Amino acid sequence: MENPPESKLSEVAIIGRKHSSGIWTKLRRISWTVLFITGLGILLLALILVCVIFETVKLSRTSSLDGPVRHTPESRDYHLRIVNFVNSLYNATWKAKYNKFASRFADEVANAEVTKIVEVSSDLPEEEMFGDTESHSKLLGRLDVNLPKAFDARKQWSLCWSMHQVPNQGGCGSCWALTAASVMSDRICIASNYTKQPQVSAQDLTSCCTGCGGCQGSYWALAPFTHWKLQGIVSGGNYGSFEGCKPYMMPPDCGTPCSLKYYARQKTPECIRKCQYLYDKEYMNDITKGATAYWVYAEGGSSDTKPAVKGLIERVLPGVSPAEILKKELYFYGPLLACFTVNEDFQHYGSGIYHTNTYNDSKELYGHCAKLLGWGEEGGVKFWTYMNTWGRDWGENGFFRVSLDEVPEEATAAVAAI
């Protein structure tokens, strides 16, 4: 067999070198592309991690303070004693569940960790003191109905989205604001026959209602509804929702509920009349208002003006029991803001129908507001139904029931301007 000519061998060698050179060129191009993409990915990941770390540090410094307050061994034993006592009672109508975030009077209140509630002066303008209480009470008195044995606003107006939401106030004493904003949202939905369902902003109410109290708690239960009527409030969802003009900004990472120390130290956010970035409305175009603001009931509370409010209601509705007044308001107009005193044992509520001082040595802690939703009866025990502002991990998925004998110390509401 003849060998190929030398010229052919040279041609084959040249072709081989060209082919080999082309492969290496492609490999080099692929390698650089892979390296570039990999490097870009690592850079983006690093930027994301830096942003996450920055936001975490910022939130921990501005909102969370020192993190959740942990129980000392002594405090833990004290709270477990409450829980075990309640659960050992054969005739108890509720079950306790140990709450590792529960406050103790001896640890916090007695040591003046909580700011003192400001007393309301009796020389308040009449609009702020009474609002539309007299006219609304007269209207309520003219409404005649055989009230049912049980009523639940969540079922009566089941298509109102706000009825089923449970907020978490976080480390801010804004129970009054979250409750009032929820009531306002419900009442807009009810008055509009489901056609309007904005979430009224608890953030806007907390920061911009100068006479309400901010993160240190409210001392005048009518104040948020008076503010809604006179100034108006924009929309805004719960923390982390990014919904509406001004969503709630206090993170719920300090407990359910947070220690009382937070409420004393947390500064009320600055009032900024501007919607969040990319929201499709201007602040002034997003405002909703109330048509009337009024007391439904007033018995106790922090002010010496409450007897005047109570006297007005009793004069307009003589002989009508507080429970009947509250029921009629719920039945015809919807949920309302109700305030009462929280005892140590209430923090450990797990389920059932709560009775104050089931544990006799349980101390009073602070005033608290929640949304009154209805009433009912279970096992022969009558009760009120509430939505709390401590998130869904507490109580009956964020809700609780209280003996019907325990009427709230004060209750307020408003009619929406539609």
TrEMBL record:
Species this chain originates from: Gnathostoma spinigerum
Pfam families with a match to the protein in the record: Peptidase_C1
The keyword Hydrolase appears for this protein: yes
The protein, known as: Peptidase C1A papain C-terminal domain-containing protein
Entry's family note: Belongs to the peptidase C1 family.
GO molecular function: cysteine-type peptidase activity
Domain Peptidase C1A papain C-terminal, first and last residues per copy: 147-418
Organism domain of life: Eukaryota
GO biological process: proteolysis
Keyword set, alphabetical order: Hydrolase, Membrane, Protease, Thiol protease, Transmembrane, Transmembrane helix
Spans through the membrane: 30-54
InterPro entries, per the entry: Papain-like_cys_pep_sf, Pept_cys_AS, Peptidase_C1A, Peptidase_C1A_C
Classification via SMART domains: Pept_C1
